[in-house]
Amino acid sequence: MNNGRGDELAETAPLTVLSSWQVLRAACSVAGLNIEHARLIRFGDNALFHLPKDSVVVRIARGMDYWADATKEVNVARWLTQINFPAAKVYDIPQPVSIGGHPVTFWCFIVGRPGDRRDIATLGSILRRLHVTPPPKTFDLPHEDILGRVRRRIAGAMIPLTDKSMLLQRLCYLQAEIRGLCYPLNPAPTHGDAHSENLIIRDGQPVLIDFERFAWGQPEWDLAMTATEYLTAKWWTDEEYGQFVDAYGYDVTSWTEGFDVLRAVHELKMTTWLMQNVAESPEIADEYQVRMRTLRGEPSSGWRAF
Hints:
The chain is an alpha+beta fold and 306 residues long.
């Protein structure tokens, strides 16, 4: 099993839905896993597949630039298991592995239902628990780089040059704004993509998943994810957002000196995440345009979730 970085970076093929299946077949052959009845769970920064025969989830990253994140994911999962934090567990093989220039990790499938709008208070509670957890002693969490992937996404996107220019200008502006923030909360372990779909509810209890953006940083960023979904995307009602705030014990929107910057950053991240897949379907291409209009200052009537 190749768990080094032997694949040549320059020849990594772009990850598409079609090519991700090819990587999956090769990865499962290397790992000795059964691909029969495999299904694609999600396609975003990664392709996620469920292998029902072995009860495994395979996670395929877009390129070797993500190798450090894949390694970190595995380390974080093992650490959280050791401290009895309710979190996803890695499948017991050496990993990550490199397949065709794509980091691949393997996870134990969690029998349960995906988190949804019923679990907004549960998300607040598990984030509160995470943010008071002492950092690991056996490895260092990377410092939070909240905009770390945005420039790479813009560079590789199949969008008009005018859009790329606008997005890059916004990125540079927000990077400068972030440097001027003075945060009210103490630094902590942060999830980095803290929304309800990154919970699995098993036997009525939450299990946290997806540690790709896990870091040591500011809890405000995790909280602002849900706040942006509430205010910009309009995915939560007033009552639901209130449940999230009550469960966590702090409303990040009350931070008048900094929340607008946090919200703008999350709007940019959410738009560029979706932007990666504009060629996959007309629906995604249409939603990308909706989000770009919001970034250009037009009033938002809500975003569609993908």
